[in-house]
Structures are given as structure tokens and as C-alpha cells.
Write a structure and sequence with these properties.
- The protein is an alpha+beta fold.
- It contains three helices and four strands; from the N terminus they run βαββαβα.
- The protein is globular and about 35 Å long.
Length: about 90
């Protein structure tokens, strides 16, 4: 078994792109809750992106942390996965 490691990298929000087929829609209550959590604790989990900087998971966090004035987020890049695995 290989080592279970994550390489967390801070990336500029401006360099990230939303996944065009993102199926999730967040309502106002969810946005307020995430905004409140981010103000209180900051970002506690990295955003998952592909090697091209497309957000796989964490769209709402990126939107809300950007609205709080941050210009960078912690990310983890998923590599060596086909599109079906990434969607899963």
C-alpha cells in the first residue's frame, strides 16, 4: 500500500474555475451558514481541484471565502483520474 498523503497548495481564487456541469445549487440559508463558519473558523478543509484548476468540490466555499475578501484558498489536486472517477 502506498503512503496516504495530501499535498495542500494555496492557490489564488482568480486562478480557479468552476466546473461547468456542477449539479449543486446552494440556497441562501446554506450560504449564510458557510459564511458564518468561515468567519468564525476560517477554511478548515481544502478545495478539491483537477490539474487544470477546475473545482471538483468546494464551489460554495470558494464563493463565500472570496466574498470575505480572501484571495487564496487551500487546495488539493486530484491526479491520474478519468472524468467518470472525478464526477463520482
Amino acid at each position: 500500500m502506498s503512503a496516504n498523503t495530501l499535498d495542500v497548495t494555496y492557490r489564488k481564487i482568480a486562478d480557479l474555475r468552476s466546473y461547468t456541469n456542477n449539479p449543486r445549487v446552494h440556497n441562501r440559508a446554506q450560504r449564510r451558514k458557510i459564511n458564518s463558519i468561515l468567519r468564525r473558523f476560517g477554511q478548515v478543509a481544502p478545495i478539491i481541484i483537477d490539474p487544470e484548476g477546475v473545482i471538483i468540490d468546494g464551489h460554495l466555499i470558494v464563493e463565500e471565502i472570496s466574498s470575505l475578501g480572501f484571495d487564496e484558498v487551500a487546495t488539493v489536486t486530484v491526479r491520474n483520474r478519468d472524468p467518470a472517477e472525478i464526477r463520482a
